[in-house]
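Before relying on records like the one below, remember that each one covers exactly one chain. Contacts with other chains, cofactors or solvent are not represented anywhere in the record.
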Amino acid sequence: QVQLVESGGGSVQAGGSLRLSCAASGYTAGVGTMAWFRQTPGNGREGVAVISGGGTLRYADSVKGRFIISQDNAKTTLYLQMTSLKPEDTAMYYCAADGRYYISLDKNLYAYWGQGTQVTVSS
């Protein structure tokens, strides 16, 4: 089992920046892929960015050039550096992990999820 706890959300004005963190605990040696997703009320969970195994990255088109996903060397903390934030980035952001190695933003592939951290961007 892997436990994930997100932090770093908050309220910011458009154009601002935030850095989200996700602390992983438990059987972290079994984690192959970690990702960030986001969800707004009434909508499905959308993949934002993923990092896998050897450091391969993938981003949703909507955040390319503005968000950066990274991990610490121990691969127990996942980060999402968000810049040039827009009101449409407002959502609950979730950290996800899985034991397999892939670059996918399909939420159905991830076994472990955090509780989420809210990001609100005002215009």
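The chain has no helices and eleven strands.
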